[in-house]
Each structure stands twice: as structure tokens, then as C-alpha cells.
Specification:
The chain is an all-alpha fold. Among the domains are: 122 residues, Four Helix Bundle (Hemerythrin (Met), subunit A); 148 residues, Alpha Horseshoe (Leucine-rich Repeat Variant). Helix content is 69%, strand content 2%. The chain has 26 helices and two strands. The protein has a two-stranded antiparallel sheet with strand order 1-2. Helix 5 runs antiparallel to helix 6. The protein starts with 8 loop residues before the first strand and ends in a 7-residue tail after the last helix. GO terms for molecular function: cytoskeletal anchor activity. InterPro entries: ARM-like, ARM-type_fold, Armadillo, Insc_C, INSC_LBD, INSC_LBD_sf, Inscuteable. This is Protein inscuteable.
């Protein structure tokens, strides 16, 4: 599994030109062309090339880009081989050969003390690439179908071996680089060197889960928590915690966090008022990551429960005092996740007047300024609404009005992530209304604010809910709860179609409903 989030330059293919140049690899030609591949088929609209403009500090990023290109080219070779496009297979094989040699040369110019095993794999890969190129060259020199057919399995086998050696070499290289950075973090007392190493480590974590696993296995979480326990590195806490949040998206990171009492360290940071808001916010981000409901590994949560009250209290305080929307988002996301796995968290929030704090924050457009923030707030409200005491808090904080406004949540940008967040806001606000409307006072407030017509609109109009089935189910449930409390609020046709039938029948009716634009 190679990094996929690479920033590559796409250029238009050039037409086939100078037939004798396409396969040449001598130094002068390669220097002039800057290793740019030349497309000879119209079906290759874009070719992936490396930018020649890079800073020496970005050596590892360059290596990852080169690795991504090689991986992509190997996949393309397999596709062309399947279609028996021998000329294309050979030209691409030559290009891969050049990229592999360039990658190895570039890496050896900046790496320190590469292992003997790495050198062995470098030699194996170069030799196998040369063999691969020789095989494909023989294929373009013959037109005998039987010979080509017999060679195809041999080429496939060689391609598999090249991919295998390449993958193992990249694994060794990335492990070596992770070890080097972690040694710098563990052994250096220099603020500058430590900061550079942590920054490089964070960049690596952004290249995907595979790199996070490598770093975690090499002790990355342990090394970073050591930094978080040294007062002399306080100014580095925010970026250290940001890197930890990335590493804790993989199970190996969680195992390491548990071993070093990471949750206790996070609780200490969050409750220490001498730390900056940025440090508290990044600690909240780590909490949000390790409590994510999407994680399948939860062995760390036992130690989390021991520190939960302290953590929840600190997060509520951070929400209340947040100076920006980003800080509020991180703190509220952590709280939202915590409310999923233990009802005690909801009771603690109730005691801390969290409902009032969150509702007040929603009225400040500088703090709760995106659908993502409103998603976190309404998640907390929905999970807290299972408690009977929440109804009075909602009424006092004008929460029903807020829930009504959230039923109108729409994306302003059309961005898919934002659209999905808006759907979640609509769904959870309807769920919260359904739960809270068991209290007559809340139901009465919802009816007076015209929640019933809005819920009907969401049920009957697919575009209002962005064709979301989850929003539809939540709105039908809320509508039915309000209809029990206020049956006069519905027209007979709405009652007959949306309330009286079984929920599944009303759902099917609404999903098959065509909108009227009259």
C-alpha cells in the first residue's frame, strides 16, 4: 500500500515524434527531457511527471512522489500487457527503469547509513528491471503470436517480482527514515532540530495509514509523548499533539498510547491552565481521534473512563472560552464522540451546564460558523436528549428554536463533505426533536415554531433533504411524535400518508414521491 495523496503535475501528452528518441535513455537525452515520458498513444491523455522544482528539504516528499509514479506505471503496464500492446508495454517498462534508477540515486544522495538489506533490495530491483526491459524489447522485435503468447506469462511473473521488490524496498526506506526522525526526537536537546524532526514526521503521517503504522511500530507515539512531558519543549506541544492525533488513527498507534499512559498525559495537559489555547485545542483533537465512533479498536477506552470527568470538564471549559471557530470545533467534536460511548458523559455534561454553553455558542456566528460545528453541537444535544432533565434546559436556552433552524441547514458551497455535514445536522436535529417532544412543553414550543410544516416539507420534498433517506426516517419519527402531542397541526392527507401507516410504508411512499413544481 503506497501513499496516494501525492501532488503531481499533469501535462498534456505530446504526439509521437522522433521515432528513434522514444526508447533512448542515454544521459544527454534524459537530461534534456528531465526524465519526462513521451506518450505515443492517444489513449494516454495525461502522463505523470515530477516537477523539477523542489527544495532539498523535501527529499523525502520527492521520494514518495517518485514511488507513487512507479507504482502507477506498474499498474498501467499490467493493463497494457493484458491488451497485448507490446510497443506500449516496452516504452513504459523503459520509463519505469529510469524512474527506479533515479529514485535510488536520489535517495542515496541524501540518506544516512542505509542498511545492507536496503542495498541488497536496490540491486535486486535494478537487476530485475533490466531483465524486465530486455524481455519486453524482445517482444517488440517479433510478430509471432505464439512466441508472444509464451513470453506473456514470463513477463507477468517478472512484473510481479519487480512490484514485490519495489514494495519491499519502499517499506525499508520509509522505516529507515522514520527511525532516523525518531532518533532525532529522542536524542536531541535542540529546539530547532526537534521541531524540524516533528514537522517532518507530521508530513509523513499525512501520506496515509500505512506510513502511520510504520511510525507507530517504530515507537513514534512513545517518542512524542516524551516530548509532551518535557516542560522545555512546551512551545512544541501543539505540533507534537497534532502529529499524535494523526498516528492515533491506526490501531498500532492506539496500542502505543495505552502503553505510555497517553490518556493521563492528555488529561494533565487539558486541565493545566498554564498551557496555551492552541495546546488545549490540539489535545482536544487527539481526544476526538481516539474516541471516534468509527474506530473498531476500543481497548484504550477503559483507561479513558478513569479520566473522563476531568477531560469532559476541561473540554466544556474550552468550548466556553474558545476564541475561534476552529478551537470550538475541536473541543465540541471531542465531546460529541465521548457522548456516544458512555451515558455518564451526558450526565456530567448536564451537571456542567454544557447545554446552556453550547446553545449560547450557536448564537455567535464567529464561533459556530460552519455546518461541521453545528453537526458536533446537535450530536451532543441528540445524545443528551435521552435524559429527562434535558427538556427544561432546552426550553430555557431557546434550544427548540435552534433545532428548528437546523432543519433548514443547507450547503452554501455544494462541497460533498459540507453537503454530508448538512444532512447530518438535519437528521440529528429531527432525532433530537423526536426524543425531546415526549415532554409536552417541548412539543408545544415546536408546534408554535411551525416545526410540523417544515418536517412535512422535508418528508415530501427530496431536494430539501438532499435525497437523504436517514433525514427522511428521522423527520417521519419526529412528525409522528409531534402529531401525537398536537394532532390538529396536520392536514388529513398528511396524517393519512405520513403518520397513520407503518413507518416503513410512509418511508416507501416518500422515497417514490415525485416533486410537483406547479
Amino acid at each position: 500500500s503506497l501513499p496516494s495523496s501525492m501532488h503531481l503535475i499533469q501535462v498534456d501528452s505530446v504526439q509521437r515524434w522522433m521515432e528513434d528518441l522514444k526508447l533512448m535513455t542515454d544521459c544527454e537525452c534524459m537530461c534534456i527531457l528531465q526524465s519526462k515520458p513521451i506518450s505515443i498513444e492517444k489513449d494516454e491523455q495525461n502522463e505523470l511527471i515530477l516537477s523539477s522544482q523542489y527544495n532539498t528539504c523535501d527529499n523525502l516528499q520527492l521520494l514518495l512522489k517518485r514511488a507513487w509514479i512507479i507504482s502507477t506505471e506498474l499498474t498501467r503496464i499490467a493493463q497494457k500487457l493484458e491488451k497485448n500492446r507490446w510497443q506500449r508495454v516496452h516504452s513504459m517498462t523503459v520509463r519505469v527503469n529510469c524512474h527506479v534508477r533515479s529514485m535510488i540515486n536520489e535517495y542515496n544522495t541524501f540518506t544516512r547509513n542505509p542498511s545492507e538489506e536496503m542495498h541488497q533490495y536496490e540491486k535486486l530491483l535494478i537487476d530485475k528491471c533490466s531483465e524486465f526491459t530486455a524481455f519486453t524489447e524482445r517482444c517488440i522485435q517479433t510478430e509471432d503470436e505464439q512466441i508472444l503468447k509464451s513470453m506473456k506469462s514470463c513477463i507477468n511473473e517478472t512484473l510481479t517480482t519487480v512490484a514485490q521488490y519495489f514494495g519491499q524496498l519502499i517499506e525499508l526506506v520509509l522505516t529507515h527514515e522514520a527511525q532516523t526522525l525518531l532518533r532525532q526526537i529522542e536524542l536531541s536537546d535542540s529546539m530547532y532540530i526537534t521541531e524540524l524532526a516533528i514537522s517532518s514526521l507530521f508530513s509523513l503521517t499525512q501520506e496515509g495509514a500505512h506510513l502511520c503504522r510504520i511510525i507507530a511500530k517504530e515507537g513514534g507515539v512513545v517518542a512524542l509523548f516524551k516530548i509532551c512531558r518535557k516542560d522545555c519543549f512546551r512551545c512544541l506541544y501543539p505540533q507534537t499533539l497534532r502529529t499524535l492525533a494523526s498516528l492515533c488513527c491506526v490501531e498500532e498507534g492506539m496500542h502505543q498510547l495505552e502503553k505510555v499512559d497517553g490518556i493521563l498525559c492528555l488529561a494533565d495537559i487539558l486541565t493545566d491552565n498554564s498551557h496555551s489555547e492552541a495546546t488545549h485545542a490540539e489535545a482536544a483533537a487527539v481526544i476526538a481521534q481516539i474516541t471516534s465512533p468509527h474506530l473498531t479498536f476500543t481497548q484504550h477506552l477503559s483507561s479513558f473512563l478513569e479520566n473522563m470527568e476531568e477531560i469532559v470538564t476541561a473540554l466544556v471549559k474550552l468550548c466556553k472560552e474558545a476564541s475561534s471557530g476552529e478551537v470550538f470545533l475541536l473541543a465540541s467534536a471531542a465531546l460529541a464522540n465521548i457522548t456516544f460511548f458512555d451515558t455518564m458523559a451526558c450526565e456530567i455534561l448536564l451537571q456542567l451546564n454544557a447545554m446552556k454553553i453550547l446553545l449560547a455558542a450557536c448564537s455567535d456566528k464567529h464561533i459556530v460558523d460552519t455546518p461541521y460545528s453545528r453537526d458536533q453541537v446537535v450530536t451532543i444535544l441528540a445524545n443528551m436528549s435521552v435524559l429527562d432533565q434535558c427538556a427544561s434546559e432546552i426550553i430555557e436556552g431557546n434550544g427548540v428554536q435552534l433545532l428548528m433552524e437546523m432543519l433548514f441547514e443547507r450547503s452554501s458551497s455544494g462541497n460533498s463533505a459540507e453537503v454530508a455535514a448538512c444532512e447530518r445536522v438535519q437528521q440529528k436535529s429531527a432525532v433530537t426533536l423526536a426524543r425531546l417532544s415526549r415532554d409536552p412543553e417541548v412539543a408545544d414550543a415546536a408546534v408554535k415554531l411551525s416545526c410540523i410544516p417544515r418536517l412535512i416539507k422535508l418528508c415530501r420534498s427530496p431536494t430539501e433533504r438532499n435525497n437523504s433517506d436517514s433525514v427522511l426516517v428521522a423527520c417521519l419519527a419526529a412528525l409522528r411524535r409531534l402529531a401525537v402531542m398536537s394532532p390538529d397541526g396536520l392536514e388529513d392527507s398528511d396524517f393519512q400518508q405520513l403518520v397513520k401507516p407503518r413507518l416503513v410504508d410512509s418511508f416507501l411512499l416518500c422515497t417514490n414521491m415525485e416533486e410537483s413544481f406547479v
